[in-house]
Every structure is written in C-alpha cells, then in structure tokens.
Design a protein that fits this description.
It is a single chain. By secondary structure, the protein is an all-beta fold. The protein has no helices and six strands. Helices cover 0% and strands 63% of the residues.
C-alpha cells in the first residue's frame, strides 16, 4: 500500500567456484537508473557472501538484483510498516 515503507536486508550467496559481480538497486521500474544503485559490479568471491542491511524503501520501489554468475542466490527479508500519521 502507498502509506507503507519497508526496512530490508539483502543477502547474496555465491555458491559457485568463480567470482561473481553483483548489482543491487532500489528502482521504480524494472531497469534501474544510474542514481538508483546501492552496489554496482561488486566482486563476491567463490563461496562468498555480500549482505546489505538497513535499507529503507517506500511502497513505490522495487528491489532489483543482478549477478554475472548463475550460481548466486539473492534473498530479501525485512518488515513492512505504516507511515506514521502526521
């Protein structure tokens, strides 16, 4: 709903034997703009993990993730809460 926001954690797990390049953004569309990236081509080594916490997004945003390797799993977890009344 429009009157909510979320506080999320995004986790990437590279299960493979090759280094992966990770991208993470919060975007209003499916294709993020240059100013919407939180991470851009960050290297995650074999069996490595990248975690971003405390990301606050409003109801109009999507979390968009990308990896250069198919062996990367991403997971988003968090809470959704109502915007306090003014």
């Amino acid at each position: 709903p429009a009157d909510t926001y979320s506080v999320i954690t995004v986790n990437f797990c590279n299960r493979g034997s090759n280094t992966a390049n990770i991208r993470l953004s919060t975007s209003t569309g499916d294709t993020p703009g240059a100013n919407e990236y939180l991470e851009y081509d960050v290297s995650v080594g074999p069996n490595g993990v990248l975690e971003r916490t405390g990301i606050v997004i409003d109801a109009t945003k999507k979390v968009v993730v990308r990896s250069s390797q198919a062996s990367v799993t991403s997971m988003v977890m968090g809470i959704e809460t109502a915007v306090p009344a003014a």
